[in-house]
Amino acid sequence: MTSANPGISKAVIPAAGLGTRFLPATKATPKEMLPVVDKPAIQYVVEEAVAAGLSDVLMVTGRNKRPLEDHFDRNYELEEALTRKGDAERLAKVQESSDLAAMHYVRQGDPRGLGHAVLCAAPHVGDEPFAVLLGDDLIDPRDALLSRMVQVQARSGGSVVALMEVAPEQIHLYGSAAVESTDSDDVVRITGLVEKPEAADAPSNYAIIGRYILDPHVFEILRKTEPGRGGEIQLTDALQQLAEDEKVGGPVHGVVFRGRRYDTGDRGDYLRAIVRLACEREDLGPDFRTWLRSYVTEEM
Ligand code: UTP
């Protein structure tokens, strides 16, 4: 599942949102640190970037950034204690996250929106295409999405966003894309984008989900983008401009994702992610599935 594109090596992970949907858990902990089975949600996201060949990861952090940094750093005290006990298995788990990628951090002073968070990455990214992975969007590790997007970007240039078809009554929760088909079944050309439209105004049921490959021209646009919906600097507004004028930054394509995705910032989806991933784990799955089956038949 590694990328064949030497052009994209940097991943930006915005993780500076307030996580208000998950209060009080997120009062002192970033929502990206909430565990999904036994790993924080953010580790799945970093692993996904690495699996797609991106080994340089910049995390955009906000208040409470310490747990994020600590998780991807060494913990010598814990490592020594586990070494003394001869617990190689747990030692490997502790070391896994600190050996994953070259991690970098930048602080987003005020959470002024996703577009603003991406703009904070400009000095680190420089003048090359880069990936953006939202820290609270979990793509099932068995369903490759980012590597397909890297492939499409290598072929078409410009920017690539991930799309997922949603029910019309859900589209107001997402950015919605106006699309034209291409000769690939899972790729569309994007001609316009609207952030969180009412169902009646949505150009399609294709919702933008939290994976992007962006042309660096997006920074220029974001610098001039005024706060939009919710008073926030919206990445969708900048993408709309990229889609409108191909001369600046090339075309915008969408990869239609038909796999499993969870919004771990949403409590219902978070619970679904845990149940599904736990059921499928070799170590926990058999016992957990037995319990779940009897719980569902006896208690519900
Ligand atoms: P969300 O809107 O889902 O995040 O942003 P939020 O504001 O933390 O969530 P709620 O609605 O209050 O629960 C999508 C992604 O963009 C990041 C978030 O961390 C999340 O990964 N983000 C958002 C930033 O990094 N900075 C911002 O200013 C806003």
Describe the protein's architecture and organization.
With about 300 residues, the chain is an alpha/beta fold. Helix content is about 35%, strand content about 25%. The strands form three sheets. Strands 5-4-1-6-11-8-12-10-9 form a nine-stranded mixed beta sheet. Mean pLDDT is about 95; it is low at about 1-5.
Summarize the structure.
The chain is an alpha/beta fold and 300 residues long. It is built from 11 helices and 13 strands.
Instruction: Look up the CATH topology of the largest domain.
Output: Spore Coat Polysaccharide Biosynthesis Protein SpsA, Chain A
> In CATH, what is the class of the largest domain?
Alpha Beta
Ligand list: uridine 5'-triphosphate
Distance between the termini: 40 Å
Strand order of the largest sheet: 5-4-1-6-11-8-12-10-9
Radius of gyration: 20 Å
Q: What percentage of amino acids are in beta strands?
A: 15-25%
SSE order in H/E notation? EEEHEHHHEHHEEHEEEEHHEEHH
Q: Count of helical segments?
A: 11
Secondary-structure blueprint of this entry?
Blueprint (H helix, E strand, L loop, with lengths): L9 E6 L19 E2 L2 E2 H11 L4 E6 L4 H6 L4 H10 L2 H11 L3 E6 L6 H6 L2 H4 L4 E4 L3 E3 L6 H11 L2 E7 L9 E7 L5 E9 L10 E9 L2 H8 L10 H10 L7 E5 L4 E3 L3 H14 L4 H15 L1
Parallel strand pairs: 1-4, 1-6, 4-5, 8-12
Antiparallel strand pairs: 2-3, 6-11, 7-13, 8-11, 9-10, 10-12
Bound molecules: uridine 5'-triphosphate (UTP).
